[in-house]
TrEMBL record:
Basic and acidic residues bias spans: 19-30
Cofactor(s) annotated in UniProt: Ca(2+)
Catalytic activity: a 1,2-diacyl-sn-glycero-3-phospho-(1D-myo-inositol-4,5-bisphosphate) + H2O = 1D-myo-inositol 1,4,5-trisphosphate + a 1,2-diacyl-sn-glycerol + H(+)
Acidic residues bias locations: 31-48
The protein's name: Phosphoinositide phospholipase C
Claim: Nucleotide-binding is one of the keywords in the record: no
Keyword vocabulary terms for this entry: Calcium, Hydrolase, Lipid degradation, Lipid metabolism
EC number(s) on file: 3.1.4.11
GO biological process per UniProt: intracellular signal transduction; lipid catabolic process; positive regulation of cytosolic calcium ion concentration involved in egg activation
InterPro entries named among the record's database cross-references: C2_dom, C2_domain_sf, PI-PLC_fam, PLC-like_Pdiesterase_TIM-brl, PLipase_C_Pinositol-sp_Y
Gene name linked to the record: Plcz1
Length: 346
């Protein structure tokens, strides 16, 4: 029913019924005030955001310890305004402050979504994975980077995909392995933007957790024969402009499936390096696993330069002889550059 539709996720004034009654009236420019839990969401001051107030000096801080605690102030109610025209566009994805899994189970509606900071979400993955997965089978859940990431760095999105989080927000302006996983994840389904979770992350009675896959394991034995490379980009750090390429093959998924293997180094040949090396992986939960091919130039024993990569879901791999395109750090296809490999699994 929602195919080719755009969902607007935002805070909302009132109920859907009230929105429907307003549809026929002209509310251009009108706003409504939201307060307390309606307005508080991911922008509140938590341990995931920078502190708003800091002590002016160490002396002041020492003085605070000796003085008696100040009287408790009444907590101010947060208020903000929302345009009714925007509010009325919110139907299936209404932002709702996250309190606890128990509170959501008792009070949250199916069209209400939560945003949880990365630090709190990581604690849930570690200590309450079963409750977290139960929550994400019922409600769309968004994870967002903590405010202390001043350089716009990113966390690994895989750990939150493993528990069924549907919206794992990243700093898209920062290239790296995390964004490569993001782009690779959504290559599935033709890159249309929505990827269906595995059935065991949609079943409300599931007992799956990333740490204990149990009966949800469908082991895959994957074999990759890395044959050769073609027209790899030249190394900017090499004096002769010839790379000494090597290939890393990495698996991202549940903790048990994490693996990384690397090929030998081919000296001074970026045009047509040949490896003819075979790598084997045993993957317990292939539905959640991603595979990343990364080509580097071994400039020295301790220094490697990134040349290109390609990341895709393991379930999107086809068997047989395959040509693997390579992308730059920014995710742009490197014309003519590729790896040639034979893929086989059962």
């Amino acid at each position: 029913a929602l195919k080719f539709k755009v969902l607007v996720k935002n805070k909302k004034a009132g109920t859907i019924e009230e929105s429907m009654l307003r549809m026929d009236d002209d509310h251009a420019g009108e706003t409504e005030e939201l307060s307390d839990s309606d307005f508080m969401s991911e922008d509140e001051d938590t341990d995931d955001t920078l502190p708003l107030h800091r002590s002016k000096s160490p002396t002041k801080r020492r003085g605070d310890r000796r003085s008696s605690p100040p009287p408790q102030k009444k907590s101010k109610v947060k208020k903000g305004k929302i345009a009714l025209a925007l509010s009325d566009l919110v139907v299936y994805t209404k932002s709702q402050k996250f309190v606890s899994f128990e509170h959501s189970l008792m009070n949250q509606k199916c069209y209400e979504n939560n945003s949880i900071g990365e630090a709190q979400a990581r604690k849930f993955v570690r200590y309450s994975a079963k409750e977290f997965i139960s929550h994400t089978t019922r409600f769309i859940t968004r994870i967002y980077p903590k405010g202390t990431r001043m350089s716009s760095s990113n966390y690994n999105p895989q750990e939150f995909w493993n528990v069924g989080c549907q919206m794992v927000a990243l700093n898209f302006q920062t290239p790296g392995t995390q964004m490569e996983l993001q782009d690779g994840k959504f290559l599935d389904n033709g890159g249309c933007g929505y990827v269906l979770k595995p059935e065991f992350l949609r079943d409300r009675n599931t007992t799956f957790t990333p740490q204990n896959v149990g009966g949800y394991s469908k082991p895959m034995s994957l074999s990759i024969r890395l044959i050769s490379g073609h027209q790899l980009p030249p190394s900017s750090l090499s004096r002769t402009n010839k790379a000494d390429p090597k290939v890393h093959i990495e698996i991202f998924g549940v903790p048990e499936d994490q693996a990384r293997k690397k090929s030998s180094v081919v000296k001074s040949n970026a045009l047509s390096p040949k490896w003819n090396e075979t790598f084997s992986f045993n993957i317990q939960v292939p539905e959640l696993a991603m595979i990343r091919f990364c080509v580097e130039d071994e400039v020295s024993v301790v220094n490697n330069e990134f040349l290109g990569q390609f990341t895709l879901p393991v379930m999107s791999l086809n068997t047989g002889y395959r040509n693997i395109p390579l992308l730059s750090k920014e995710g742009i296809k490197l014309e003519s550059a590729s790896l040639f490999a034979h893929i086989w699994y059962y």
